[in-house]
TrEMBL record:
<dbReference type="GO" id="GO:0007018">
    <property type="term" value="P:microtubule-based movement"/>
</dbReference>
<dbReference type="GO" id="GO:0005524">
    <property type="term" value="F:ATP binding"/>
</dbReference>
<dbReference type="GO" id="GO:0005874">
    <property type="term" value="C:microtubule"/>
</dbReference>
<keyword id="KW-0505">Motor protein</keyword>
<keyword id="KW-0547">Nucleotide-binding</keyword>
<dbReference type="Pfam" id="PF00225">
    <property type="entry name" value="Kinesin"/>
</dbReference>
<dbReference type="GO" id="GO:0003777">
    <property type="term" value="F:microtubule motor activity"/>
</dbReference>
<keyword id="KW-0175">Coiled coil</keyword>
<dbReference type="InterPro" id="IPR001752">
    <property type="entry name" value="Kinesin_motor_dom"/>
</dbReference>
<feature type="binding site">
    <location>
        <begin position="115"/>
        <end position="122"/>
    </location>
    <ligand>
        <name>ATP</name>
    </ligand>
</feature>
<protein>
    <recommendedName>
        <fullName>Kinesin-like protein</fullName>
    </recommendedName>
</protein>
<comment type="similarity">
    <text>Belongs to the TRAFAC class myosin-kinesin ATPase superfamily. Kinesin family. KIN-8 subfamily.</text>
</comment>
<keyword id="KW-0493">Microtubule</keyword>
<dbReference type="InterPro" id="IPR036961">
    <property type="entry name" value="Kinesin_motor_dom_sf"/>
</dbReference>
<dbReference type="InterPro" id="IPR027640">
    <property type="entry name" value="Kinesin-like_fam"/>
</dbReference>
<dbReference type="GO" id="GO:0008017">
    <property type="term" value="F:microtubule binding"/>
</dbReference>
<feature type="domain" description="Kinesin motor">
    <location>
        <begin position="22"/>
        <end position="367"/>
    </location>
</feature>
């Protein structure tokens, strides 16, 4: 049965309690703000009226995405649905919060928000002073964990790096004027950004400061669709190094948590972009599509079958995230959606037309497939999963 998540009545989860998936897919609906407030409704209309998205938190359907000129409705299942009243903390508790213990014990995890420009990705990942986002909440929790460790547990060191991928070029956000950095892969397939600064941090304030200066260095560009939309993908990586007490079984582990604030995607015609901006848009979409393709492949791969081909190499972003997206890691996607008229998605063919436009439904289908095959979730998604999003 749907489980209530926190205070918000518009939030619920359909994932059974205690079940941990390699891939978690959540959706978060942004409230309407300012001039758009009179549009307040649970029925969200957007994208030239081609798509009507209905959030139905009172039923188990969780999310329904219907393309009007098709006779068939498409429905997608999410592990967690966060309504308009949801707070970053609620989102944190049911997503990243469940991965921190793994990171502490040496596993890798990746979390990102995925959605159109203006749908709330930065709000969710970075947040602000009053409503800190997943990045800050994750760090806070890691430090809380470190402090609660006993001396006999060994020693923990926490470091972090912060970079952006802009136009398929990597820049260090922790240095004043970063040059383009190279992505290297050693013979074992470990990915490393050469020259990237990694700073040891000892409390939350350190990270807050790093985020603040780093964010000010990010490439933002005003487009017609959104006043300050980020043109780059920002990746905060938190490394947790654990060295056990010296002795016969002394060992050390390195856990990594990558938190990604993705750039949005908007159509060229709507944003009035040309030249450089148009090129940025093309590169952003290239990375997002590559990411979606990796997630799709992973959803398939974690279904107990042999690990299939995961197309990491198609963009800088996916090469960079390779470790945190691979077999033994945990991945969480928070799809952000909004009904505000200015929040648009990519123009895709109707069969691809989903919430954010990036075959998101298919991603979710794969996630469902993984769960179905693992026998831990609602198997129907897996059964229905073909090349098309599942119809449940
Ligand atoms: P994106 O990063 O996806 O382009 P933003 O996170 O910048 O979008 O959100 C656009 C605007 O909407 C910002 O002013 C942000 O503060 C606001 N916003 C987004 N999500 C929420 C939310 N859940 N609650 C309140 N305000 C939000
Ligand atoms: Mg943003």
């Amino acid at each position: 049965a749907p489980r209530s998540a926190g205070r918000s009545s518009k939030t619920f989860s359909i994932a059974p309690e205690g079940v941990e998936h390699a891939l978690t897919v959540a959706v978060r609906v942004r409230p309407l703000i300012g001039a758009n407030q009179d549009e307040r409704s649970d029925i969200l209309r957007e994208m030239d009226k081609k798509v009507v998205v209905v959030l139905d938190p009172d039923s188990e359907k969780s999310y329904l995405d219907s393309v009007q000129h098709r006779s068939k409705e498409k429905r997608y299942t999410f592990d967690v649905v966060f309504g308009k009243q949801s707070t970053n903390e609620e989102v944190y508790d049911l997503t990243v919060g469940r991965m921190v213990a793994d990171v502490m014990s040496g596993r890798s995890a990746t979390v990102f928000a995925y959605g159109a420009t203006g749908s709330g990705k930065t709000h969710t990942m970075v947040g602000n002073e009053h409503d800190p986002g997943l990045m800050v909440l994750a760090v806070t929790s890691i430090f809380r964990n470190v402090r609660s460790m006993k001396q006999t547990d060994g020693e923990y060191t926490v470091s972090c790096s912060y970079l952006e991928v802009y136009n398929e070029v990597i820049y260090d956000l922790l240095v004043q004027k970063s040059t383009a950095l190279d992505l290297r892969e050693d013979p074992n397939g470990n990915v490393k950004v050469s020259g990237l600064r990694s700073l040891e941090v000892s409390d939350v304030k350190d990270i807050m400061k790093l985020l603040e200066t780093g964010n000010a260095r990010r490439k933002t560009e005003s487009t017609k669709a959104n006043a300050t939309s980020s043109r780059s993908h920002a990746v905060l990586e938190i490394q947790v190094n654990h060295a056990s007490r010296p002795g016969v079984h002394a060992q050390s582990t390195l856990g990594k948590l990558a938190l990604v604030d993705l750039a949005g995607s908007e159509r060229a015609a709507e944003t009035g972009n040309a030249g450089q901006k148009l090129r940025d848009g093309a590169n952003i979409n290239k990375s997002l599509l590559a990411l979606a393709n990796c997630i799709n492949a992973l959803g398939k791969a974690t279904g107990g079958r042999s690990l299939g081909y995961v197309p990491y190499r198609h963009s800088k972003l996916t090469r960079l995230l390779k470790d945190g997206l691979s077999g033994n890691s945990r991945t969480c996607m928070v799809a952000t959606v909004s009904c505000a008229a200015h929040v648009r998605s990519l123009p895709l063919r109707p069969e691809q037309c989903t919430i954010s436009g990036h075959r998101l439904g298919q991603c979710c289908g794969r996630a469902g497939a993984a769960r179905g095959a693992l026998g831990t979730g609602r198997g129907t998604a897996g059964d229905a999963c073909g090349s098309d999003p599942p119809v449940i």
